[in-house]
Design brief:
Elements: E1 2-4, E2 8-11, E3 17-20, H1 24-34, H2 43-47, E4 59-60, E5 63-64, E6 77-82, H3 96-113, E7 122-134, E8 141-151, E9 155-164, E10 169-180, E11 185-186, H4 191-200, E12 222-226, H5 241-254, E13 263-269, E14 279-286, E15 289-296, E16 299-308
Helix pairs in contact: 3-5
């Protein structure tokens, strides 16, 4: 499974497909006709509701809290493994980037087990939500469960629950778009692939609504270089999803008071970050949380927010 970030899929000068930041005027019309979530052109656009949302009595950063429960726990795809040293920080806390990697790992394993999973090998990550309800630490053993919570025929929300033997609990959700790498555009999932998802979901017309707004450099937010490494880049030249969460960890290190559970962290991808890009990280502390942004050439590519969870 390939997890991608950004919207424009074009052939480079070698004839190979690559995913790039779109030239907005060319792409937005086609994307709107296809019902694809639109990347913002301005901060105002980002704050607008582009499509409908699910009903919820409680909203946290515009997203339902708690996240949808599993309707059929025995049917959820389940794996288990220990929390290793490389997954944790200096205080032995399971890091957010490791949680994002866990989400990718269970997704890949479930794809291998799914009927016609081999026909759905490329996915674009539009958003990841991580709710750290009770922290998980080094040496613990986790059980991960993954199931669909809502869907359309080209994308779906994947729910992931991570609980541990010592009582830790993390809830997560990803908005994933199925991509046809040959046609270079979002693609309809096959009927056989969708059948198990249809059986456990009631929302079959999932629409997108952005939860985060860009930080305006002119208004606030201190920017500094975010150095990329060779090991951050995948086979398509994109910066790996977990690396975006390393930027969130950088922001959390500056404001450790926000890392006391329970808290919610959100990452939304509004453009691709490539391995050769010069990336700037910008942060803004507010009473309600911390905003984090990755930029390339003055354009926001990744938006993130950390905020306390309200019970």
């Amino acid at each position: 499974m390939t997890l991608l970030h950004g919207y424009d899929l074009a052939a480079d000068d070698t004839g190979q497909r690559s995913f790039r930041v779109p030239e907005m005027r060319r792409c937005r019309g086609w994307m709107a006709r296809q019902g694809l979530p639109l990347p913002p052109t301005t901060a105002t656009d980002e704050g607008k509701s582009l499509m409908g949302t699910a009903n919820s009595t409680i909203q946290q950063s515009g997203i339902a809290f708690p996240l949808p429960p599993c309707p059929d726990a025995p049917a959820a795809y389940t794996v288990s493994w220990p929390v290793r040293l490389g997954d944790t920080d200096g205080q032995e806390r399971l890091r957010l980037d490791a949680i994002a990697r866990y989400a990718m790992d269970i997704g890949y394993e479930q794809l291998e087990a799914a009927e016609e999973g081999h026909l759905h090998l490329a996915w674009l990550v539009r958003r990841t939500v991580i709710d750290v309800v009770r922290p998980i630490e080094f040496g613990d053993r986790v059980t991960l469960r993954r199931w669909p919570s809502a869907m359309s025929n080209r994308w779906f929300n994947a729910r992931i629950q991570i609980d541990s033997e010592r009582g830790g609990l993390i809830e997560a959700e990803q908005f994933l778009i199925n991509i046809d790498p040959e046609a270079a555009r979002p693609a309809r999932m096959s009927d056989r692939f969708m059948a198990p998802m249809l059986a456990v979901t009631t929302e079959h017309r999932l629409r997108w609504q952005a939860a985060l707004q860009p930080i305006s450099p002119a208004a606030d937010g201190a920017g500094r270089s975010f150095q990329l490494r060779v090991t951050d880049v995948d086979r398509l030249g994109h910066v790996n999803n977990a690396v975006h969460w390393e930027a969130v960890e950088e922001g959390l290190a500056l404001h450790p008071e926000l890392g006391t559970a329970p808290y919610r962290a959100i990452v939304e991808h509004v453009g691709a970050v490539m391995g050769a890009d010069d990336v700037v990280i910008r942060t803004r502390r507010a009473d309600t949380g911390l905003d984090i942004q990755l930029e390339v050439d003055g354009s926001a590519r990744t938006l993130a927010r950390i905020s306390p969870l309200n019970y």
